[in-house]
Each structure stands twice: as C-alpha cells, then as structure tokens.
Amino acid sequence: MSAESGIQTFRAADGLWADHPIEEVATPEGWARDPERVLRFYNARRDQVRSARPNAAHQALAELEADGFTVSIVTQNIDDLHERAGSRHVVHLHGEVLKARSSVKADLRYPLPQGGIEMGDLCDLGSQLRPDVVWFGEAVPRFGDALELVAEADLLLVVGTSMAVMPAASLIDAAPMAAPRVLVDPQADELITTGVNGLALSAGEGVPRLVEHWRRQRRLVLPGEVL
C-alpha cells in the first residue's frame, strides 16, 4: 500500500531485509544483542516515513469514508499515511513507527512527532524506550480488534500483500460468507484463492478505480467490468 509513496517493503527483492537480516533488527533477540543497531534501523525508517506522502490509494480510501461509507482499515504497515490521507479508523496490526514504547510495559506508548529514539531515552518506569513495532516472535495485540472488524464487513478489500505473514493473512477467512473479497495486487492472479476476486493492478491504480465505482453506485458492489 505504501510502496508507491516511496516506502520500502520488507519482502521485495530490493526491500529492507536485503540489507538488514530479520533476526538482527526485528526480533526480541536482536534487540537484546544490539539495541543500538535496532534503534538506528528504526530511526532511519522514521525519517523515511516522515518524508513520504500518501499516494492515490490512501487518498481514495479516505475519500470513500468522507463520502459517507463506513471504512475501517486494518494495516500491516507501520507508517501513518492512512491517517495523513484522512482515514479515521485505522488498526495497526504491527505497530506504529512514529511511536515509542516501554521495554517493560507494552501499553506505555509515546508519540514521536520529531526525532527518534536514542539509548538512554527512558519510559516513565525507567526502562529503555524501543520502537512501538511488533517484531517476529511477538504477539499481535490488536489482532482481536481486526478480527471483529473483518467479521462485520460487507466487503473485504485486500491490498498489496504477499498473503504470507501470519496471523494477518488469515483475516481474509474471517469475513462473512456473503461478503465479497477483492484482492488488489500486481500478482493477484497468482495469489487469489477460491472465493476471492482479483484485480492485477498496483494499489495506486486499482484502489482508486474501485472507489470511483463504489462512489458512483453509492454501494459496495463488485464491478464486473473491472475485475
């Protein structure tokens, strides 16, 4: 979803993991071994997010909400581009890079309107601050919230995902049987499963096209001429 805003993805061939091994910067064990390296990595991610701008897909979803539709967003992305585009109901499954949290009490969170996290920056309990990001091997605190939203959906739109990261990938199966499922991804034809409609376009192309159709129809119906 955010790749077209210039934010590197994790799983692409030229993505973040190409230069930064997962186990070194995105696991509790990596944090325990070298917290300074982890902080440097996420400080750089933070700078990248701040310089990025919402793309056409972020804007289209915000416009759909502004037009009176109920739009709830569940994202694996740790940036704030949905919020900056104007979306008001966003669940960040994997945390938010523009926040810090306590190393000893996960619900002690602190916004980072500028700058990053340095060694010696402490929470109110006196522990080192860490990125408010869910690392591999950690629980996903807001997965229950995401399940509830998906279970009530009239339509489920899945955008730009490898469908490989659990538990997020399982959410597509939580939608009501009667709710259409649409996957927008350049590789949609290879990723779709039974009962999923695929649109093999980038987020910036496919999402605005669908949103335009829904706004014109005033309801969430599948556009046969597009899918």
Describe this protein's structure:
The protein has 8 helices and 8 strands. The protein is α/β, with parallel strands linked by helices. The strands form 3 sheets. The chain has a 3-stranded antiparallel sheet with strand order 4-3-5. The mean pLDDT is 92.
- Main sheet summary: 3 strands, antiparallel
Compute the separation of the termini in Å: 19 Å
Mean pLDDT: 92
Envelope shape: elongated
Computed Rg: 18 Å
Specify the number of helices: 8
Main structural class: alpha/beta
Binned, the helix content reads 25-40%
- Got a strand count? 8
List keywords for this structure.
227 residues, alpha/beta, three-stranded antiparallel beta sheet, three-stranded parallel beta sheet, 8 strands, elongated
Which SSEs are present, and which pair or pack?
Blueprint: H1 22-25, H2 28-33, H3 35-51, H4 56-66, E1 73-75, H5 81-85, E2 90-92, E3 95-102, E4 109-111, E5 129-133, H6 143-151, E6 156-159, E7 181-184, H7 188-191, E8 196-199, H8 203-217
Parallel strand pairs: 1-2, 6-7, 7-8
Antiparallel strand pairs: 3-4, 3-5
Helix pairs in contact: 4-8
